[in-house]
Amino acid sequence: MITTLADIDPKRVAAILYRSKQNAYGLLADLGQESHAARRACRGLRPANQKSATA
Question: What is the pTM of this model?
Answer without folding.
Answer: 0.58
